[in-house]
Structure formats: structure tokens, C-alpha cells
Amino acid sequence: MTSALTSASATADLLSLLAARESPPSGFGAAPNLPADAIRLLGGVPANEALPVDHLERAFRETLSDPAEAIAALHYSVPVGIEPLRTWVAAHEGVTPNRVLITNGALHGLSLLFATLLDPGDVVALESPTFPLTPRLLGHYGARAVPVPITRDGLDLDSLERRLREGLRIKALYLIPDFQNPAGTTLSASDRERAVRLGQRHGFVVVSDNPYRDLRFAGTPVEDLDLDNEVVVRVNTFSKTLGPGLRLGWLVAPERLVPALTRLRANTDQHSALLTQTAIARLLRTPGTFDAILSRAREIYRERAAVLTDELRATLPDTVDFDTPEGGIFLWARATDPDIDLAAVRTRAHALGTDFSLGRFFDPDGATHHTDRFRLGFSNNTPQDLRTAVQRLAAAFPPH
Predict the structure, then answer these.
(1) Are 54 and 296 within 8 A, CB to CB?
(2) Which residues of 121-138 are buried (b: 16+ CB within 10 A; e: fewer)?
(3) Once rounded to an integer, what is the mean pLDDT over residues 360-378?
């Protein structure tokens, strides 16, 4: 187990990484010098209309208007998080509260997990493409990322198993099982079970980073990785449902890992904001509240995904190809002509007032793969803005 996080410099690096989740690195987020009315089809930002402002206002007001609760919420807390919030998360995840650790969002949960599990030189397998900050985080702990390709059905487990048989030794397998970022794939139930069996057989942890699971608006839900298994860890967040500004998430780990994770947490930032934990626990304790918030978000994203896909099919039918999203907040598209330079398309789109993310920025292996792909974020754009953005994209592509 590494003790890197106990140093001041390592803590500063961690804080920088956490800030980077909200301030995307160059080339991944918005381009400079875009017009004031530019439409950005970029990061994983919830729709403004889906943010439960009224529920949150009430929860914080009621917390602070109760003198005893307000005083308690403004004091120090415990590293694992407060009992009411851990109890709600445990019920949501189908585990006991003693396996839950409240975190400052999903990336913080991953940071704690990787700091606990990894030593310099360890190897972690992950999907390619993947969320760009995960390989960077692994590098912070001196680990090496080994990309495993994604097919239309999710992670290519045949490829991973073949490499394991050939002698690859990994400490963890990092997955985004539902509506994968950026590819949008959902791993089948059988492949989730197979990934866990591989973890058992080869002695590695299977990490499920699953922030989009609750945002399914079509199709049939798939059971997530079995948390009753000792090799499975789940990371999740309220960022996509209640708002990223809350900086609140959770980690569910096997009991054998919880003491080490708790000690690490106590030695770094001690605990998540107690006032925020208390208010969110108050919001969640009213039956049906979270479900109503999710229901509204799903309806918004269902409409916006339909608008985006319909407009792309009508405007660029022979130029781009994609699978229709069944959930999440992104669309992963492919340029059908391999000779199209998507970087040049993006530059022309900037001049027209639209931005999107190039596929190569999601390559954990040096930005040399996925050059024919691009990601469009549809969550925080109105239907009319989505239509306008697609028209601008069409103008940015070379004539067919």
C-alpha cells in the first residue's frame, strides 16, 4: 500500500486532479475564442432544468433552521460519512452501511481506491476509449494503464482474457459499465459476471465507475457487478443527478478494504462537507424524492437524445454513424469516411460557433486511436440549440 498521499505535495496534486474534473484539460473541453453564442457539445454537465434547485433549497434551509441540526452540521465529522447518508447509499446499492464511504465525488473515490491498492509499477486494465482523467490519475500513483478495446457490446473480454493467459498481471480492471463514457456502450450481464470471474481467477479488483446508471431512458436495465463478491468495488456520485457543485459521491468496497480506505481518508481531507451531507441526507429521506428527480432528468435526456439523433440522421445521413443512446448524456459518433480530418472539422465548427470532443482525447494510449470518432454531449443544451449545433456541424464537414 502506498503512502504517497500523506505528503503535502501529493495532496496538492490530488486537489489539482479534483479541480481538473470540473475544469477540463486543454483539448478535452471548450476551445478558446469561441463566439459568445457558441453551442458546446462537450462535458458531462447535467441539464440546468434537471438540477433539483427547489429540493436542495428546502433541504439546506430546513437543516440550517433547526438550531441543533445546524450546529451539528457545522462541526467536524467522521471520515466514512454520516450514518443517515451511508444508510441511504447502502440501500440504493444493496449493501450494508459498513461498506460505504462518502466521498467528494467519483474521482475522489477513485483516488482513495487507487492510493490504497496501487504501488508504483502496478498495472491497471481499462477500456479504450475511456474517461480521460482515469489514466492521468493512474500515472499519479505510478501505475501503468493497459488499454482493452471496446466493441459495440462493451469491453472486449476475449482480448483481455487472452492477454491474462499470456502472462499479463493486473492489479485492477477499471470499467464504466452503463452508458460508457465516451462510447455509450452498456456491458451485458453475462460479461459483467465474466469480468468478476476473471478477477477472482487472476487476483485483481474489478472497479465499477457507474455515474450514468440511473439515467437510463430506454431499453432494459442490466444488473450491475455483484457487490457481494470480494473483488468488486463500486464508485458513484451525485454529480450527474443532484449537481456536480455539491462534490458528493460514494465508494462501496469489500469489508477487507474499508479500514485502509478510512485511514487514508482520515489522513488527507478527513471528511466530506458535513453541512452538504446533512442536507442531502434530509432531501433523500423523503420517500420518492430522488426517484422524482431521476424521472425528470430521464425525460429531459430522452427528448434531447432524440432531437440530436433525428437531426444528425436528417442532416448528415451518409457522413456520420452512431448507435442510438438508451441512457446517459453523450453520443459517440463515427465519421464514415476514414479520410475526413475531424480536427479540421472541429476547427471549422469553432468558427461557426460549435464545439465537440475529438475521439482521440479519450485514448488512454497516447491519442493515436479513435481518430475517426467524436463525442457529442447533449445534456445541457436545449432542443433548439441541438438542432442549430448539428446544422453548424454539417457545414463544418467537407462536402460529401
Answers:
(1) no
(2) ebbbbbbbbbbbbbbebb
(3) 93
